[in-house]
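#lab-general

N.A. 3:47 PM
ok so I finally got the sequence cleaned up, no stray characters, all 351 residues accounted for. can someone with queue access submit it? mine expired

B.Y. 3:52 PM
send it over

N.A. 3:53 PM
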Amino acid sequence: MEPPPQPSAMDALHEAGIHAAVALQAGPPWLEQFWLFLTSHLDPKAVYTVCFPLARGLDEHVSLMVLWIALVAEWFNVVFKWFLFGERPYWWVHESGLSSREQLPLRQFPATCETGPGSPSGHCMILGAALWPIVTALSKGVARYTHSRMLRLIPFLAYILLLVAMGLSRVFVLAHFPHQVVSGSLAGMALGWGLQRRPPDFLKCRFFLGTALGLLLSALALHGLATAAGLDLEWSLLRASARCSEPSWLRPETRPWASLCRVSGSALGLALAALRPLSRRGAQELRALEPPLGSATLGLLALDVLHKLPKSDDTALWYLNVGARYTLGPVLVGSLLPQLILALRRLRATP
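B.Y. 4:20 PM
back already:
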């Protein structure tokens, strides 16, 4: 009688990740609510609709860097997922046969059923990259008031703790294995650090027009080449559809093409915002007149309304709708709203 085949190193890693998820799901109810809140409210979309406008409370340049780094990180995340073929726990546990060999008290949640491949974690990678300029700005702000190195490190310690908590929340909902959240976090930190060292000129419209077109066309080209080579890049959608316990949890915004619409739309929005920037004098006047979080709060509310508008059920129109919303976001936050605030302030100041 032949001995049973030994599991591969990757299978062993996946199985260890499943048992980590079992341990997390066995935790207290209050902790479960924390994991669900974190994974639902700090998803990649929140970087564009919450972190980007709120960062204006620190500095306009920081806000634009958040958006720029987020869209580049998300593009890389889509490409990595296409070619790394990462499994997700909620379907792997069935596809591997582990669920039939062991009784595993696992549950799915509305945030579980992501439809794209699993490696690396987009939540961790995009959040880790986009928060880097915010954390750096906060650390520099602390350094202006103290010489204590420990105090200057507090923003970075909070950043690391947030990424760890995000990673645990993704493991908890069975969306990722631990090694996927670790790789996503490390990739995000590396991108945030590297891209911040070479910031683009946010007044160059042509650069961002070229970026928007380049990111979309390069993704289409890579997808076409992979398909021509016989690779099925839609394999994860079939597994997600088969293993998600509730069909309504299969959300279109988790598909790679939705991410690419978000990325290209945001780059196009940066280009359009560069067409009508505030003058240096206007920017200085605005900073002197308004509270630090004035335009940040207004931008946050505007984007919240924008993204709550209904979308078309038609697939092509749905993607166009998503691209249009993310194009309008940088225009609203980076150009239209600041100019509106400045115009209203000047009007009130006129005798």
